[in-house]
Amino acid sequence: LRLMQLYTLGGELFANALWIALPMIALLLFTNLALGIISRVAPQMNIYAVGFPVTLAVGLVGITATLPMLDQPFQSLLERSIEIFTGR
Fold first, then answer.
1. What is the pLDDT of residues 17-71, one digit of tens each?
2. Nearest 5°: phi and psi at 73?
3. Which of 5, 36, 60, 70 is 20–30 Å from 43 (CA)?
4. From the CB of residue 5, how many other CB atoms can be counted at a distance below 10 Å?
């Protein structure tokens, strides 16, 4: 029974981690899609020189925007794992 709860916690942890990371994944996917379109429209522009700083800046802005919203999911995951390990 205890081992099954641990497996359930692992599955919940993976699913919740995916939901937490999904906004950043979507934002960076959209950024790479836009950079791909730009590289096809303007082939003379070096996309590697432009793409890295743009992706880095978009990632930092995205983390800054989503970080305040992550306290509730992390708190609920921590409470759930404490609940499983203490047996309550």
1. 898 899 999 999 999 999 999 999 988 888 888 899 999 999 999 999 999 988 8
2. -60, -40
3. 60
4. 13
Please tell me the predicted confidence (pLDDT) of residue 57: 96
Give buried/exposed letters for 36-74 (b at 16+ CB in 10 A, else e): eeeeeeeeeeeeeeebeeeeeebeeebeeeeeeeeeeee
Round to whole Å and give the CA distance between 73 and 23: 14
Rounded CA-CA distance 23/21 in Å is 6
Half-sphere exposure of 38 (CA within 13 A, CB side): 14
Q: How far is CA 74 from CA 37, 45, 84, in A?
A: 36, 42, 15
Mean pLDDT, residues 62-88 taken together = 85
